[in-house]
Amino acid sequence: MTRPRKIIIDTDPGQDDAVAILLALASPELEVLGITAVAGNVPLTLTQKNARIVCELAGRPDLRVFAGCDRPIARPLVTAEHVHGKTGLDGPVMADPVMPLQPGHAVDFLIETLRAEAAHTVTLCPLGPLTNIATALTRAPDIAGRIQQIVLMGGAYFEVGNITPAAEFNIYVDPEAAATVFGAGVPLVVMPLDVTHKALTNRARVEAFRALGTEPGRMVAEWTDFFERFDMAKYGSEGAPLHDPCVIAYLLRPDLFRGRHINVEIETQSDLTRGMTVADWWGVTTRPANALFMGDIEAGGFFDLLTERIARL
Ligand code: BDR
Ligand code: CA
After folding, report:
1. For the domain 5-310, what is the CATH code?
2. Least packed by Cβ within 10 Å: which of 139, 154, 156, 200?
């Protein structure tokens, strides 16, 4: 087997972040070098704790979890308890983690790891606001040329927005950070709402997780049961989008996704459209492509992969 691909997961768990972390930890093709927590769905004190809860659930208390930025670069924090509940991982009752939080700052860990590992061998997987990643790129511009790829969940084009009519949550919370990341010249793969709104749970898919009969399977079913109620009421859909696992699934099965290499710019000025990902899907400008912006997913294959991998934990 080829060597596992090295990744760092930057995250604000979040039930869908938690499923993404489980998917990564269940996959031998990936080596998770560490997890960096950021403020987003809930404040940092909870996201770093939730990340450790998920590592323990996966039987990986040895993993290093770092706390990062506790607020966006230039704005007050906006959170999403209305979706994820007060803890960020509402649904099942879960015990506090025993494994320690690492003493260092997540941004230092990102910089040090990217400098220590061979160039182009570490992929970053941001699943929340891009504050940690942008802060690292600003403080240590040399790391941009060392990152293999950034595969992130954020933005939207045809689906437009979920936190405002114009913006997706992760980009909206820290648009200045997103502008830095999209302008950094790093190979970028973007999983926008256009993809994740097709990665919808339904009864059969949730029951398949529960039927695994394992603790991780039960947790995934109970988390999705919890946040489904919000999305079903909002979109009238059969289930809820599993946004963040799309990032990890792309690393395992890129063939499940379709997208275009296009230019994507971030709106940071307008009050009305702050955090909008202005994606040149139709190629109507001469602005250079800076991202592989995904538009479609083969949802059946995605859920089969997810279920098969969660079963291994
Ligand atoms: C994104 O926002 C969060 O609520 C989810 O965890 C996901 O990363 C979807 O807009
Ligand atoms: Ca997230």
Report:
1. 3.90.245.10
2. 139
